[in-house]
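Please decode residue identities from the backbone states below.
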């Protein structure tokens, strides 16, 4: 049995967020990113709000 530590969980979460940010920058839609990364739609939308807005 493998024990996952809290820092490993945090690292995995950060990795999912970085992947989501990359996909958002490439124009992928929020719902698909949530499915691919395992993040919630709300989490992906929060990441989207962090991206600079294009004019």
């Amino acid at each position: 049995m493998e024990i996952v530590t809290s820092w490993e969980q945090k690292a995995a979460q950060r990795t999912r967020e970085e992947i989501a940010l990359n996909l958002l920058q490439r124009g992928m839609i929020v719902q698909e990113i949530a499915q691919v990364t395992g993040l919630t739609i709300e989490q992906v939308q929060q990441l989207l709000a962090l991206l600079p807005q294009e004019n």
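Observation: The first helix runs from residue 6 to 25.
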